[in-house]
């Protein structure tokens, strides 16, 4: 990242006003298989979707889109994008933790995603974060490349206000 543009390593819900910036980020991050303006607008309005963004003073540096289905215990990470100048600074890992937390809050028991079989940096992030391969999808992307289907089981959130039963030794 250029000097003077520290990324906030926190994610927040996207707003309708972020639509142009989301589309611009998508175009900067991906050469194909992009979320369209229409898809982002639909996700922002969908109660079964969460769009999270990470930003700094100059604008969006990352975004993640998560979908839920009423008939599935698993949430689906549809897209995660980090601006080229923000890569390598933990922003992707921060967005991933934020979508996992959002999935747990929505009652999801697992998080699933597809990732290009050739995307070594994304695969390393997902493996380090506890995702396992549950399948391979041949020809998944526009360019004909394959995808790995990954999943991570999500622990249930602890009840609010619950204290640990452990006592400190004195």
TrEMBL record:
Location of the N-acetyltransferase domain: 9-155
Keyword Acyltransferase: yes
Top-level taxon in the UniProt lineage: Bacteria
Protein name from the UniProt record: GNAT family N-acetyltransferase
Classification via Pfam families: Acetyltransf_1
EC number of the protein: 2.3.1.-
The keyword Transcription belongs to this UniProt entry's keyword annotation: no
InterPro entries per UniProt: Acyl_CoA_acyltransferase (IPR016181), Bact_Acetyltransf (IPR050832), GNAT_dom (IPR000182)
MF terms (GO), sorted A to Z: acyltransferase activity
Keyword list, A-Z: Acyltransferase, Transferase
Enzymatic class: transferase
């Amino acid at each position: 990242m250029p000097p003077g543009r520290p990324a906030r390593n926190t994610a927040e819900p996207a707003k309708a006003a972020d639509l142009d910036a989301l589309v611009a980020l998508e175009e900067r991050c991906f050469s194909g298989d992009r979320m369209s303006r229409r898809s982002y607008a639909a996700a922002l309005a969908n109660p079964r979707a969460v769009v999270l963004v990470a930003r700094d003073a100059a604008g969006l540096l990352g975004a993640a889109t998560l979908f839920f289905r009423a008939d599935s215990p698993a949430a689906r990470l549809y897209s995660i994008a980090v601006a080229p100048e923000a890569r390598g600074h933990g922003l992707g890992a921060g967005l991933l933790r934020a979508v996992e937390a959002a999935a747990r809050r929505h009652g999801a028991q697992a998080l699933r995603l597809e990732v290009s079989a050739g995307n070594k940096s994304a695969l390393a992030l997902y493996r380090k974060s506890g995702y396992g391969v549950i399948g391979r999808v041949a020809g998944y992307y526009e360019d004909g490349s394959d995808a790995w289907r990954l999943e991570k089981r999500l622990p249930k959130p602890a009840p609010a206000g619950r204290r640990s039963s452990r006592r400190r030794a004195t």
